[in-house]
Inverse folding.
């Protein structure tokens, strides 16, 4: 019996059209997510302004509120992605996820001085932290987001010292040092992660230099307290 090539390739064509339609919908949603991500990052950049350190609570609260839109948009993505096809489309939102994790980790650090946990990061996005779930946050994306945080904290350390907050650079140095220890425990096979980890070591050196500079100038909080004590005796 002769094969009907027209019918065979019509099925292929229909599949390709459905595939392209799904990707177009995904691109539209990801575009919105990227716009919201830029707005959150722009908001948090206010920390680096002269009065930014006194507005941490307000900026973090506004940042958390903007993540409500992120949750809605990721919810729309979950509705589009077919079951068991997460990895087929994941590249569309991989990089914006990393930036969102950076923003979430920056908010958590500013609020508590703590490192964002994977489950907490997933909650910011309204997705699962469990890799066995259909729609989840990939570990590599989470870790790359944390490494972006180290870049931002290096900048914050320098600006804090400039604006007369000499305690914060010490706290940042200790935090980045702990991050460095933690990442050293990992066997990083992802090329992007390994390269970004090299940047973490550079950031650690920079924040330690800020603390050292404050130390030799006698501006560390403990040194100032010692001077005040000596002066009163």
């Amino acid at each position: 019996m002769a094969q009907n090539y027209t019918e065979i390739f019509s099925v292929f064509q229909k599949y390709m059209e459905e595939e392209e339609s799904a990707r177009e919908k995904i691109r539209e949603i990801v575009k919105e997510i990227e716009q919201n991500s830029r707005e959150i990052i722009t908001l948090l950049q206010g920390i680096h302004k002269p009065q930014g350190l006194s507005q941490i609570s307000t900026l973090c609260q506004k940042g958390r509120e903007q993540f409500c839109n992120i949750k809605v948009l990721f919810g729309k993505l979950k509705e589009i992605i077919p079951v068991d096809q997460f990895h087929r489309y994941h590249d569309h939102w991989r990089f914006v996820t990393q930036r969102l994790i950076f923003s979430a980790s920056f908010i958590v650090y500013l609020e508590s001085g703590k490192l964002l946990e994977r489950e907490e990061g997933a909650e910011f996005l309204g997705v699962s932290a469990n890799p066995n779930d259909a729609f989840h946050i990939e570990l590599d994306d989470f870790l790359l987001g944390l490494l972006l945080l180290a870049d931002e904290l290096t900048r914050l350390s320098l600006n804090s010292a400039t604006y007369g907050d000499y305690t914060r650079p010490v706290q940042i140095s200790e935090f980045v040092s702990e991050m460095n220890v933690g990442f050293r425990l990992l066997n990083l096979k992802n090329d992007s992660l390994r390269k970004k980890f090299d940047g973490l070591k550079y950031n650690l050196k920079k924040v330690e230099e800020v603390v050292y500079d404050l130390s030799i100038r006698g501006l560390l909080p403990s040194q100032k307290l010692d001077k005040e004590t000596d002066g009163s005796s």
